[in-house]
Specification:
transmembrane; about 65% helix; about 60 residues; elongated; membrane; transmembrane helix; mainly alpha
């Protein structure tokens, strides 16, 4: 039996978590309380940094 499992990279999990947190913050800010938009001040730049890191050929943050 051949196992072709690729290891899951930490950057991929980080991007998924940041996307989910951003979606939840936008939904909560729109429906319940506008104070949730402040979460985006922290998580949106982190998401953009993680995406930029994945797109680079030579990684800066995660190696």
């Amino acid at each position: 039996m051949i196992h072709n499992k690729k290891p899951v990279r930490a950057i991929g999990i980080t991007i998924i978590i940041l996307v989910l947190v951003n979606v939840i913050a936008i939904m909560e800010g729109y429906t319940n309380n506008g104070k949730w938009y402040w979460v985006l001040v922290i998580t949106l730049p982190l998401l953009l940094l993680a995406i930029a890191n994945v797109r680079r050929k030579k990684h800066i943050v995660f190696q």
